[in-house]
User: What shape does this take?
Amino acid sequence: MAIKSLEDLFVETLKDIYYAEKKLVKSLPKMSKAASDEKLSELIMEHCAETEEHVKRIERVFDLMGKKPSSKKCEALEGLLKEANSVIDEIEDETVCDAGIVSSAQTVEHYEIARYGTLAAWARELGMEEAAELLDTTLDEEKAADQKLSALGESEENQRAAA
Amino acid sequence: MAIKSLEDLFVETLKDIYYAEKKLVKSLPKMSKAASDEKLSELIMEHCAETEEHVKRIERVFDLMGKKPSSKKCEALEGLLKEANSVIDEIEDETVCDAGIVSSAQTVEHYEIARYGTLAAWARELGMEEAAELLDTTLDEEKAADQKLSALGESEENQRAAA
Assistant: This one.
């Protein structure tokens, strides 16, 4: 598709994050299973449930624009997941692997924070207030997930320090 | 390299961001040249100069650990740059292309924010305060760059609205 207007760019970016969210719904359970710390494992599964809602919100945005949802391979997420999988596959020590999982998950959250921030701003510029609100809701959940991961990373550090 | 300890994971992640920063020093001038808005073009070149300092700070961290700087292909950054280049190559309209460049640059900043946040926390846990401070300095510059891009994106939106 040729991108000629801000609306085209908005739709292409929506397809990118739609691919990313659907891929994450499939990938997060593997990440959760690889985590040794129960709290980390649960946090990732909770975020997986939120991610299913993010998929539905994107479908709602497509719907508001009178478009059928479609996705486009997100090269950035593919790269982020490749790094995350190498952490899971290569690190045997449980607590070190958990530290790597927290770190990888945060790179994914930050990718999404950047994307939803842009999409919400563009939606407002295009006069799509309802879409902007849906995107803002997801943005807030991604930021909250990043903060929960930071807090968990710190508490794991304290545990390691006390061990 | 087998990752067996938090120090190993720290070093592997440092190699990842070292690759990313060196690649950005080469890639940002292309992004700057592709931007039509003079302020955006300048902002990217200013950040490119900062990025050269980020490379030196990482070399200093390797040095503090008594290690020779080395890099490891950063799949995440490769994916992010692939997306950024497709924006530059596929969008003919200047203002739409600029919006895409701001958006792509912010995904890169957020990747770095996630990485430096983790690295600084791990450096502290490993008792490397001087390294942590170097990493924090870069983290602050990445956050500032992201905020400048957001502000520029908004002022461009206002210009498009007034046009």
